[in-house]
Amino acid sequence: MLDVDHELNLMAIKRTPTNLRLLHGNPGKKPLPKNEPKPESSIPACPTGLSAAHRKEWKWITSELDKVGLVTQIDKAALLVYVDAYVELSEALREIVKEGPIMKVPVFAGNTGRVVGHRYQKNPWVSYP
């Protein structure tokens, strides 16, 4: 059975946040909302336990977003997901550049463990989830 409220919610046109409209010069020239909630712009603390690469990207993206007033404490979880995805993508690209999209891997003899040849396989970083 369809949930009518849910279906209607999916079909609703999503509004562009006021800050983004202001950054783009309010292209539709529609009046800006006056009673819109305005969370205070502040950089959330960097979560503990992150790698150096994660912390570096965290500092960069939060400072850039703060310059235009687009970061609040509410954004912490979304920023963490972004930072993690960015670092993993960077690592995957480095590995693909280093090894290539196709890798030459040794084939070992089953009983002796000696290398008896080579085969080619797709670099696992190419299809990394």
Describe the secondary-structure layout.
Elements: H1 4-11, H2 18-23, H3 52-67, H4 76-99, E1 102-108, E2 115-122
Antiparallel strand pairs: 1-2
Helix pairs in contact: 3-4
Protein described:
The chain has about 130 residues and is of the alpha+beta class. The chain has one domain (about 5-25, about 40-125). It contains four helices and two strands. It has a two-stranded antiparallel ribbon with strand order 1-2. Helix 3 (about 50-65) crosses helix 4. The radius of gyration is 24 Å and the shape is elongated. The chain starts with a helix and ends in a 7-residue tail after the last strand. InterPro entries: Phage_term_ssu_P27. Pfam families: Terminase_4.
